[in-house]
Amino acid sequence: MKKILFFAFLMVASVTLFAQETLEKDKHYAKLPAIDIQTLDGQIFNTSNIQNDGKPIIISLWATWCKPCIAELTAIADEYEDWVEETGVKLYAISIDDAKTSARVAPFVNGRGWEYTVLLDVNSDFKRAMNVNDVPYLCILNGNGEIVWQHTSYAPGGEEEVFEIIKKMVGK
Length: 172
What we know:
By secondary structure, the protein is an alpha+beta fold. Helix content is 41%, strand content 22%. An 8-stranded mixed beta sheet has the order 1-8-7-4-5-6-2-3.
C-alpha cells in the first residue's frame, strides 16, 4: 500500500511540475497600447515608440499635483544613474496633468533635475488605455516591450522592490 501511495504522490508531483513549467513557458504578457501623447515641446509621440534596445523599461504615470507620485519619482531619481549603469533600464515618466496644469510639467521636472524621458498624456488617453484608475502607477516592461509587473500607490522603499525586479530581469 505504501508503494502505491508513493507512486501516486510521485505522479501527482510530476504532473504539477510539468504544468508549472508549461505555464511559465506559455506566459503571455500584455503589450503597451499604441496611443498618441506629447513630448514636453508639444510634438506627437506614439507610445509604440517606447523602447530601450531590449533592456528593461519603467513607465510611471504621475501628476504634478500627486504627492506620492513626486515622492516615488524623487526616490528613484536618487538612484537612477546607478540603475542605468548597472542594468541599462530606462524610465518614461508620463504626466497625466490636464491642459490647465500641463504647462507646469517642464519647469517642475527641470527644477528637480529628473533625468527621465518625460511625456504628456494631457487627455488621459494612455491612462485609460492602460486601465489605470489611480496614480502613481508604475509598470515594468521586459526587453520585448511586454508589461511584466505593475502597481499603484507608493510607500517609501518601494523603489527598492522595483530595482530588485529589474536586476532579476537582466540576470544580476
